[in-house]
Amino acid sequence: MQDQDGANLTRADVVGWLNSAQMDRRAKYVQAGRRFQSAQSDELKQQWIKAFEAFVLPDGRSLNGEMVSLADDIESEISLRGEPLPYEKAENAMAALEKAVLSVYNDTKADPEQHDKARERAHADFVAYQKAMRERH
To answer: How many CB atoms lie within 10 A of CB 93?
Structure first.
């Protein structure tokens, strides 16, 4: 597959980009002092479920930024411990999030200007990731 500039993209590139974003969130959490470091894993997982369930606001389309941030921090702590997230215990929340993402995607797709802006942001982020990878090697 090629991007709009003709560069070859592989699945490994895309997975690396996604993993890089996750690592950036973890690094930010660690740099901020690991506020959940002393919490018990079971307690953290329960907090993560509650935060995850509060991701989608009552309008069914918007995300609660505070809860997304909280869940990201808890997810970072859990992953630093090498433990899995309890997605199976948050099925309703996952379904609501999928519905919200699909709704926003469809709205963005229907508005060419908004779609182009979203595509440009994603492209710029990916290009920055590729540049950082080249500079490391």
So the answer is: 19
Interatomic CA distance for residues 14 and 3, integer angstroms:
12
Give 8-52 pLDDT, tens digit per residue: 667 777 667 767 888 888 999 999 999 999 999 999 999 999 998
Helices (H), the chain: 11-31, 41-53, 65-80, 91-110, 112-136
Tokens of 40: 């018990």
Distance of CA 37 to the CA centre of its chain: 21
Q: Tokens 């369930």 sit at which residue?
A: 53
Tell if the pTM clears 0.85, that is, is over it: no
Residue 75 has pLDDT above 80, yes or no: yes
How far apart, in whole angstroms, are the C-alpha atoms of residue 127 and residue 125? Answer: 6
**Structural domain for 105, as ranges:** 11-136
Domain count, the chain: 1
Report the interhelical angle of 41-53 vs 91-110 (nearest 10°). 40
The span from the CA of 69 to the CA of 63, in Å, is 11
